[in-house]
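Worked Example 4.2. Consider the chain below.
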Amino acid sequence: MAERVALYLQDAHDLRDGLDYVRYAEERGFEAVWQAESRLVRDAIVPMAAYAAVTNRIKVGSGVINNWTRNIGLLAATYLTLDDLAPNRIICGIGAWWDPLARNVGIERKKPLLAMKETVNVLKRLLNMEKVTFHGEFIHVDGIELDVVHGRKEPRNVPIMIGATGDQMMELTGEIADGVVLNYCVEPKYNEKAMDLLQAGLKKSNRTLDDFDRPQLIVCSVDNDHDKAIDTTRGLLTQYLAQQPHIAKASGVSEDVVKEIQSILGWPATKEQINKAKHLVPEKLIHDITASGTPDEARAKVAEYRKYGCTCPILYPVGGDVKLLIDTFAQQI
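Applying the procedure from the previous section yields the following structure tokens:
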């Protein structure tokens, strides 16, 4: 029986090359492709539409958009449009975003749990083709519905998966979402606590883990040269530990290391700054929180994440030969 596996694309490649990678992943039996939207580098929706247009089977997810910068009507219309392009193949991965980026663009992320709960509630109803009136603290709508004149009017099958990292958001995810997108740059054993928190939330909605999908982002650098694969990952971790403190915290990285890296990197970080600071990232950390190395080493590490509750690895090729990564985890020849 084939194992579930997905591809994660961000900004480390030309966008048109991404179309080739997605088609190749579909040929090799990958279940899904997820497009990032994190730093101010690449919107998720445009690439998702492109991937959907050039494929026939593979699912296409956002990994993840945030719930602050698109109003709820536009958000629902966006996923309706994607579902029109690729019926029953679209996944809405959504997260609470992160500071300092949100703050730097003028977003005050107050009460993130309530904001997410309102977003998921109303988005589900709109995609169910309901007419919705809702007055919460963050969302206020009066008698709105998706205005489909030409096209399918039936409810849309677009799973809503929350990209959760913190404890409270993880528990809420189990309560209200269709699944979770587990974060990257964490040890496999991190998932033990995540599973407990998800179960607490699922209990509130009379569900169990068996009812709940748990794909996980995994940084994956594959090269036949072990040292080259490790060095590629070290550069990525240097940037992310500095710019996304919530990932550093979840990874168990000391504040002293993070502060030293931050003192070297600007925003946005340059390649020169990353190269200057990357020696601060210990190799043990790379092995603990990523699947980096030779194809056999990468497969063994991904198997650990499966063991600890991941239902579908979402592999993030941080550089190098993306097709080698796809071949390493191919489900069909």
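The chain has one domain: 6-222+309-328. Residues 226-243 form the longest helix (18 residues). Compare this with Example 4.1 before moving on.
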